[in-house]
Specification:
Layout lengths: L1 H7 L6 H21 L4 H16 L12 H14 L3 H27 L5 H11 L2 H5 L11 H4 L2 H28 L7 H9 L3 H32 L6 H27 L8 H7 L1 E3 L19 E3 L7
Helix pairs in contact: 1-2, 2-4, 3-4, 3-5, 5-6, 6-9, 9-11, 9-12, 10-11
Family: Belongs to the terpene synthase family.
GO molecular function: metal ion binding; terpene synthase activity
EC number: 4.2.3.-
């Protein structure tokens, strides 16, 4: 995979940055495996281990520690070599917020708490892991200084981009999650519960919102330099060039997430490319138990995944 990515991104990312990105994605998935469906206390301990490994990259890990600790440490040891101090500060800040959201998700799960749609979106912006993932494109210093990334107009764009990613990710992951009775933290479920609608009604809502967010993202992209000037920020030609690179980098994430969802095998096995064409996938039967907490029909039905193009 590293060789393929190097070929695809040779004009924008060096091999070292791509390796950091691959390692980070693997760390996200490993954290998922250690925290999905676990009680809050277990999730808290897991997240504490990850954070300790990142904050202490040279500290020997305790004997017998779960795998996520050493993996997080090895990822960060390598990332430090290929990133600027400002990029690392940005990552640690945003990754800590991601870990906090994983703990909140577990707490909600323990309490069977049903979030409102807006509460879910607010939590999931951090939970989707987009902002720490943006670190991959900031390691070389070609994009804006880390301090710029926390400016309100820039952070607003990141929030919109995060919502685009979470909408697309939740749609494609829903079938796998409902089969494991683990779809409570999914925008499809949240909409069905809050709006008292069915699966198709939830999907229609998501598609409308996705299209609206695309328009907002493009409008913010066009107005970002002027908005920063209006806030009293000096935007030099160099800064404007960096912002342009950062906007392009950020805009690639929703599309990249879409392609990965169909190509990786995580959600659709070896049928991903076929499903990407047909947009039809057979609903998976329950695997974990006969308990159907979401009240979904269990017939052998076909689920439609709408086409949502990202410009």
């Amino acid at each position: 995979m590293l060789r393929r990515l190097r070929h695809c991104h040779s004009n924008s990312l060096v091999a070292e940055e791509i390796r950091v990105g691959c390692d980070l994605m693997n760390l996200f998935f490993l954290i998922d495996e250690y925290t999905d469906r676990q009680p809050r206390e277990v999730v808290q301990t897991t997240c504490d281990i990850v954070l300790d490994a990142l904050n202490n990259p040279e500290k020997p890990r305790p004997e017998g520690e779960i795998l996520v600790g050493p993996v997080a440490q090895l990822f960060w040891q390598n990332a430090i070599k290929h990133s600027t101090p400002e990029a690392r500060r940005f990552f640690m800040k945003t990754f800590s917020l991601y870990l906090d959201s994983v703990i909140v998700q577990a707490d909600n799960r323990d309490k069977n708490y049903v979030r409102t749609i807006q509460e879910y979106i607010d939590m999931r912006r951090d939970n989707i892991g987009l902002r720490p993932s943006i670190f991959i494109g900031t390691t070389s210093g070609k994009t804006p200084r880390t301090t710029m990334l926390f400016w309100v107009p820039v952070a607003t764009r990141e929030c919109v981009c995060g919502e685009l990613v979470l909408a697309g990710s939740d749609m494609v992951s829903f079938n796998k999650e409902q089969a494991s009775d683990d779809a409570e933290c999914n925008i499809v479920t949240v909409i069905m519960q809050n709006l008292r609608t069915d699966y198709l009604g939830a999907i229609e809502w998501i598609v409308r919102e996705h299209k609206r967010l695309q328009r907002v993202f493009l409008e913010l992209a066009a107005s970002l330099p002027q908005r920063l000037r209006d806030d009293g920020v000096e935007v030099t030609p160099r800064t404007e060039e960096q912002l342009g690179l950062y906007i392009e980098h950020m805009a690639q994430w929703p599309r990249a997430n879409k392609q990965w969802s169909f190509e990786s095998g995580r959600y659709f096995g070896d049928k991903g490319l076929e499903i990407q064409e047909t947009r039809l996938v057979r609903k998976l039967p329950k695997r974990a138990s006969d308990d159907n907490k979401l009240g979904l029909p269990q017939a052998n039905v076909i689920i439609t995944i709408p086409t949502v193009e990202v410009g």
